[in-house]
Design brief:
By secondary structure, the chain is mainly α. The protein has 2 domains: 50 residues, no CATH class; 156 residues, no CATH class. It contains 10 helices and 2 strands, in the order αααααβαααααβ. Strands 1-2 form a two-stranded antiparallel ribbon. It starts with 10 loop residues before the first helix and ends with a strand.
Protein backbone atom coordinates (compact mmCIF):
# COMPACT_ATOMS: atom_id res chain seq x y z
CA UNK A 1 0.00 0.00 0.00
CA UNK A 2 1.34 3.48 -0.90
CA UNK A 3 2.04 5.61 2.14
CA UNK A 4 0.43 9.01 2.56
CA UNK A 5 1.82 11.49 1.74
CA UNK A 6 3.93 9.80 -0.98
CA UNK A 7 7.68 9.96 -0.36
CA UNK A 8 10.12 11.67 -2.71
CA UNK A 9 12.24 9.25 -4.80
CA UNK A 10 15.84 9.07 -3.65
CA UNK A 11 18.63 10.41 -5.80
CA UNK A 12 19.94 6.90 -6.37
CA UNK A 13 16.50 5.79 -7.64
CA UNK A 14 16.19 8.79 -9.95
CA UNK A 15 19.66 8.20 -11.36
CA UNK A 16 18.89 4.53 -12.02
CA UNK A 17 15.68 5.45 -13.84
CA UNK A 18 17.48 8.07 -15.87
CA UNK A 19 20.23 5.67 -16.93
CA UNK A 20 17.64 3.09 -17.97
CA UNK A 21 15.53 5.63 -19.85
CA UNK A 22 18.09 7.47 -22.00
CA UNK A 23 21.35 6.60 -23.70
CA UNK A 24 24.20 7.06 -21.28
CA UNK A 25 26.06 9.31 -23.64
CA UNK A 26 23.20 11.80 -24.05
CA UNK A 27 22.56 11.95 -20.33
CA UNK A 28 26.26 12.48 -19.56
CA UNK A 29 26.40 15.11 -22.26
CA UNK A 30 23.48 16.98 -20.71
CA UNK A 31 25.11 16.79 -17.30
CA UNK A 32 28.35 18.08 -18.78
CA UNK A 33 26.54 20.94 -20.45
CA UNK A 34 24.90 21.87 -17.16
CA UNK A 35 28.26 21.77 -15.37
CA UNK A 36 30.01 23.91 -17.95
CA UNK A 37 27.15 26.36 -18.18
CA UNK A 38 26.67 26.76 -14.43
CA UNK A 39 30.34 26.54 -13.62
CA UNK A 40 29.81 23.74 -11.12
CA UNK A 41 33.04 22.14 -10.09
CA UNK A 42 32.28 20.99 -6.57
CA UNK A 43 31.99 17.23 -5.86
CA UNK A 44 28.18 17.34 -5.63
CA UNK A 45 27.70 18.99 -8.99
CA UNK A 46 27.39 15.78 -10.98
CA UNK A 47 24.90 14.37 -8.50
CA UNK A 48 22.78 17.51 -8.79
CA UNK A 49 22.89 17.25 -12.57
CA UNK A 50 21.83 13.62 -12.44
CA UNK A 51 18.96 14.60 -10.20
CA UNK A 52 17.70 17.20 -12.67
CA UNK A 53 17.90 14.81 -15.59
CA UNK A 54 16.39 12.03 -13.58
CA UNK A 55 13.40 14.14 -12.60
CA UNK A 56 12.77 14.95 -16.28
CA UNK A 57 12.92 11.27 -17.15
CA UNK A 58 10.57 10.44 -14.30
CA UNK A 59 8.04 12.93 -15.63
CA UNK A 60 8.33 11.48 -19.14
CA UNK A 61 7.75 7.98 -17.71
CA UNK A 62 4.69 9.09 -15.74
CA UNK A 63 6.42 9.08 -12.35
CA UNK A 64 6.27 12.53 -10.83
CA UNK A 65 8.33 13.69 -7.91
CA UNK A 66 5.42 13.30 -5.51
CA UNK A 67 4.06 10.17 -7.23
CA UNK A 68 1.07 12.03 -8.59
CA UNK A 69 -0.56 13.25 -5.34
CA UNK A 70 -3.73 14.27 -7.19
CA UNK A 71 -4.28 10.71 -8.35
CA UNK A 72 -3.63 9.45 -4.84
CA UNK A 73 -6.07 12.01 -3.44
CA UNK A 74 -8.78 10.93 -5.88
CA UNK A 75 -8.26 7.29 -4.90
CA UNK A 76 -8.39 8.21 -1.22
CA UNK A 77 -11.57 10.28 -1.70
CA UNK A 78 -13.23 7.46 -3.65
CA UNK A 79 -12.49 4.93 -0.93
CA UNK A 80 -13.74 7.38 1.70
CA UNK A 81 -16.96 7.93 -0.25
CA UNK A 82 -17.45 4.17 -0.59
CA UNK A 83 -17.05 3.85 3.18
CA UNK A 84 -19.71 6.49 3.80
CA UNK A 85 -22.07 4.76 1.37
CA UNK A 86 -21.60 1.48 3.19
CA UNK A 87 -22.17 3.10 6.58
CA UNK A 88 -25.30 4.82 5.26
CA UNK A 89 -26.61 1.48 3.98
CA UNK A 90 -26.02 -0.19 7.34
CA UNK A 91 -27.75 2.62 9.22
CA UNK A 92 -30.77 2.54 6.91
CA UNK A 93 -31.06 -1.24 7.19
CA UNK A 94 -30.93 -1.09 10.97
CA UNK A 95 -33.49 1.71 11.04
CA UNK A 96 -35.93 -0.19 8.84
CA UNK A 97 -35.49 -3.54 10.55
CA UNK A 98 -35.59 -2.22 14.11
CA UNK A 99 -32.74 -4.59 14.97
CA UNK A 100 -30.65 -3.81 18.03
CA UNK A 101 -27.14 -2.38 17.47
CA UNK A 102 -25.76 -5.52 19.08
CA UNK A 103 -27.21 -7.82 16.41
CA UNK A 104 -26.25 -8.46 12.82
CA UNK A 105 -28.66 -7.31 10.15
CA UNK A 106 -30.90 -10.24 9.29
CA UNK A 107 -34.12 -8.94 7.79
CA UNK A 108 -36.91 -11.47 7.58
CA UNK A 109 -40.03 -11.34 5.44
CA UNK A 110 -42.43 -12.11 8.27
CA UNK A 111 -45.28 -12.88 5.88
CA UNK A 112 -43.35 -15.99 4.81
CA UNK A 113 -42.17 -17.23 8.20
CA UNK A 114 -43.49 -20.71 8.95
CA UNK A 115 -41.76 -21.12 12.30
CA UNK A 116 -44.34 -19.26 14.38
CA UNK A 117 -46.32 -20.22 17.43
CA UNK A 118 -50.03 -20.56 16.76
CA UNK A 119 -51.61 -18.58 19.59
CA UNK A 120 -55.22 -17.96 20.55
CA UNK A 121 -55.81 -15.67 23.50
CA UNK A 122 -59.33 -15.50 24.90
CA UNK A 123 -58.52 -13.16 27.80
CA UNK A 124 -56.11 -10.42 28.72
CA UNK A 125 -54.79 -12.61 31.52
CA UNK A 126 -53.67 -15.15 28.92
CA UNK A 127 -51.55 -12.51 27.21
CA UNK A 128 -49.99 -11.50 30.52
CA UNK A 129 -49.17 -15.13 31.31
CA UNK A 130 -47.49 -15.60 27.93
CA UNK A 131 -45.52 -12.38 28.40
CA UNK A 132 -44.28 -13.69 31.75
CA UNK A 133 -43.08 -16.91 30.09
CA UNK A 134 -41.21 -14.89 27.48
CA UNK A 135 -39.53 -12.74 30.13
CA UNK A 136 -38.48 -15.86 32.06
CA UNK A 137 -37.04 -17.42 28.90
CA UNK A 138 -35.11 -14.24 28.16
CA UNK A 139 -33.62 -14.30 31.65
CA UNK A 140 -32.64 -17.94 31.23
CA UNK A 141 -31.10 -17.28 27.83
CA UNK A 142 -33.42 -19.72 26.06
CA UNK A 143 -35.72 -17.30 24.25
CA UNK A 144 -35.73 -17.77 20.49
CA UNK A 145 -37.18 -15.38 17.93
CA UNK A 146 -38.08 -15.95 14.30
CA UNK A 147 -39.01 -12.38 13.36
CA UNK A 148 -37.17 -9.08 13.19
CA UNK A 149 -38.07 -7.56 16.55
CA UNK A 150 -36.79 -8.23 20.04
CA UNK A 151 -39.14 -9.17 22.87
CA UNK A 152 -38.88 -5.66 24.31
CA UNK A 153 -39.82 -4.09 20.98
CA UNK A 154 -42.84 -6.36 20.59
CA UNK A 155 -44.08 -5.69 24.12
CA UNK A 156 -43.67 -1.94 23.62
CA UNK A 157 -45.39 -2.05 20.24
CA UNK A 158 -48.44 -3.84 21.63
CA UNK A 159 -48.63 -1.42 24.55
CA UNK A 160 -48.36 1.61 22.25
CA UNK A 161 -51.27 0.52 20.09
CA UNK A 162 -53.48 -0.15 23.11
CA UNK A 163 -52.74 3.32 24.46
CA UNK A 164 -53.55 4.99 21.14
CA UNK A 165 -57.22 4.36 21.88
CA UNK A 166 -56.93 6.55 24.99
CA UNK A 167 -54.34 9.09 23.86
CA UNK A 168 -54.94 9.43 20.12
CA UNK A 169 -53.59 7.86 16.94
CA UNK A 170 -50.65 9.48 15.10
CA UNK A 171 -52.07 8.94 11.62
CA UNK A 172 -55.20 8.81 9.50
CA UNK A 173 -56.24 6.09 7.06
CA UNK A 174 -57.40 6.86 3.50
CA UNK A 175 -61.12 6.34 3.04
CA UNK A 176 -60.76 3.46 0.57
CA UNK A 177 -58.47 1.60 3.01
CA UNK A 178 -61.03 2.10 5.79
CA UNK A 179 -63.73 0.62 3.58
CA UNK A 180 -61.65 -2.48 2.84
CA UNK A 181 -60.57 -2.99 6.46
CA UNK A 182 -64.07 -2.57 7.85
CA UNK A 183 -65.37 -5.13 5.40
CA UNK A 184 -62.70 -7.56 6.64
CA UNK A 185 -62.97 -6.66 10.33
CA UNK A 186 -65.02 -9.68 11.36
CA UNK A 187 -62.63 -12.01 9.54
CA UNK A 188 -59.66 -10.51 11.38
CA UNK A 189 -61.47 -10.73 14.70
CA UNK A 190 -62.20 -14.38 14.03
CA UNK A 191 -59.06 -15.63 12.25
CA UNK A 192 -56.35 -13.20 13.31
CA UNK A 193 -54.31 -10.45 11.71
CA UNK A 194 -52.01 -11.09 8.71
CA UNK A 195 -48.23 -10.87 9.12
CA UNK A 196 -45.93 -8.69 7.07
CA UNK A 197 -48.28 -5.72 6.61
CA UNK A 198 -46.59 -2.31 6.43
CA UNK A 199 -48.01 1.19 6.71
CA UNK A 200 -46.71 3.12 3.67
CA UNK A 201 -44.12 5.88 4.22
CA UNK A 202 -43.67 5.01 7.90
CA UNK A 203 -40.27 4.07 9.31
CA UNK A 204 -40.15 0.38 10.25
CA UNK A 205 -43.52 -0.06 8.52
CA UNK A 206 -45.57 0.80 11.59
CA UNK A 207 -45.63 2.87 14.78
CA UNK A 208 -44.39 2.03 18.23
CA UNK A 209 -41.17 0.19 17.34
CA UNK A 210 -38.91 1.81 19.93
CA UNK A 211 -35.97 -0.30 21.06
CA UNK A 212 -36.68 -1.45 24.61
CA UNK A 213 -35.25 -3.95 27.01
CA UNK A 214 -37.39 -7.01 27.67
CA UNK A 215 -38.21 -6.03 31.25
CA UNK A 216 -39.11 -2.45 30.36
CA UNK A 217 -41.25 -3.53 27.42
CA UNK A 218 -43.05 -6.14 29.51
CA UNK A 219 -43.85 -3.53 32.17
CA UNK A 220 -45.32 -1.20 29.55
CA UNK A 221 -47.47 -4.01 28.20
CA UNK A 222 -48.73 -4.94 31.68
CA UNK A 223 -49.81 -1.35 32.33
CA UNK A 224 -51.51 -1.02 28.94
CA UNK A 225 -53.38 -4.33 29.29
CA UNK A 226 -54.48 -3.38 32.80
CA UNK A 227 -55.81 -0.11 31.40
CA UNK A 228 -57.62 -1.96 28.61
CA UNK A 229 -59.20 -4.30 31.15
CA UNK A 230 -60.20 -1.52 33.58
CA UNK A 231 -63.30 -0.40 31.70
CA UNK A 232 -61.84 3.04 30.98
CA UNK A 233 -63.58 4.58 27.99
CA UNK A 234 -61.44 4.78 24.88
CA UNK A 235 -61.90 8.31 23.55
CA UNK A 236 -60.40 7.74 20.11
CA UNK A 237 -61.80 5.50 17.39
CA UNK A 238 -59.46 3.32 15.40
CA UNK A 239 -58.47 4.93 12.08
CA UNK A 240 -58.74 1.47 10.55
CA UNK A 241 -61.80 -0.10 12.18
CA UNK A 242 -63.78 2.97 13.22
CA UNK A 243 -66.01 2.92 16.34
CA UNK A 244 -65.85 -0.39 18.19
CA UNK A 245 -67.56 -1.68 21.32
CA UNK A 246 -65.30 -2.59 24.22
CA UNK A 247 -65.42 -6.33 23.60
CA UNK A 248 -64.28 -5.88 20.01
CA UNK A 249 -61.56 -3.43 21.06
CA UNK A 250 -60.23 -6.04 23.48
CA UNK A 251 -60.53 -8.76 20.85
CA UNK A 252 -58.60 -6.86 18.18
CA UNK A 253 -55.77 -6.22 20.66
CA UNK A 254 -55.72 -9.91 21.55
CA UNK A 255 -55.38 -10.76 17.84
CA UNK A 256 -52.60 -8.19 17.62
CA UNK A 257 -50.79 -9.86 20.51
CA UNK A 258 -51.16 -13.28 18.90
CA UNK A 259 -49.58 -11.99 15.72
CA UNK A 260 -46.42 -10.58 17.27
CA UNK A 261 -45.87 -12.88 20.23
CA UNK A 262 -46.01 -15.84 17.84
CA UNK A 263 -42.53 -14.89 16.61
CA UNK A 264 -41.11 -15.37 20.13
CA UNK A 265 -40.46 -18.92 21.35
CA UNK A 266 -40.01 -19.18 25.13
Amino acid sequence: MTSWPPSTPSRATIRAIAEASEPRTSVRAEVGQRRSHEGQSEPGAEAAGWEQVGRRCCCEMGISQQQRPLRAFVAFFSSLRAGFVQISFVLRCRMVSGVSWTHEIDMVDTSKVQDRRVLRFSTIEAVLADADRIVAAERAGTLRRTGNWSAGQIFGHLATWINYGYEGFPFQTPWFVRVILRIRKNKYLRDGLPAGVHIPKVANGTYGTELLGTEEGAERLRKALTRLNSGETARFDSPAWGPMPQDQRIAINLRHAELHLGFLHP
